[in-house]
Amino acid sequence: MQISFVPSVLAATFAAASTYAEPAQYELDPAHTTVYFTVDHVGFAGTLGIFGDVSGTFTYDMDTQDLSDVAVTITAASVNTFNEARDGHVRNADFLDVEAHPAITFTADGGTASSETAGSVTGDLTILGTTQPVTLNVTLNRAAEYPFGHKRFVLGLSLDGTINRSDFGMTYAVDNGLVGDQVDIRVETEAMRID
User: Fold this and answer.
1) For residue range 115-142, what is the model confidence (pLDDT) as tens digits?
2) Which DSSP symbol is given to 166?
3) Radius of gyration (Cα) for the chain, nearest Å?
4) Which of 21, 36, 38, 155 is least enclosed by beta carbons within 10 angstroms?
5) Residue 9 lies in a domain
6) C-alpha to C-alpha distance for 25 and 112, rounded to whole angstroms
7) Per-residue model confidence as pLDDT tens digits over 37-95
8) What angle do CA 75, 185, 72 make, to 5 degrees?
9) Does 32 map to a domain?
């Protein structure tokens, strides 16, 4: 009886894994997605900012590692630098100009795998109505069914990259060095399979 039980378990496990080994659409879990950045302030220290309203979807094939249909939207006004006066400044025309440009978007239609758990994605980042190519490094932290709550299949992802804000026309305080041009970006997300 034990001999027949083991193959049955292996067959069931393989079948479950095969369920996810095909192109599937995923959506970012808003409760477990963080987009944040640091930018130099007068050469003394990096200032941290977080965007609190992020949504997005993509298609990914676990078997072939093919990535497509990436579409992420960030509400620019959701920026939080943990200082009310600075938040107001970052939202005005010197920086994000959120009234004229309420959304920051990132779209991509492919990625490059360097291993089973790492790679990169190059796509189009639009800020202030200007679109530039940006490459983000991607790490797959975990791919599994969620252990509680919704119990959906989830990809845990970490991404990072760097942009120059002047490439998007955001030049305030670049020349005098009060605010750095380089912005380091990080994304931590749990992406849920759409069944």
Assistant:
1) 999 999 999 999 999 999 999 999 999 9
2) G
3) 20
4) 21
5) no
6) 18
7) 999 999 999 999 999 999 999 999 999 999 999 999 999 999 999 999 999 999 999 99
8) 40
9) yes
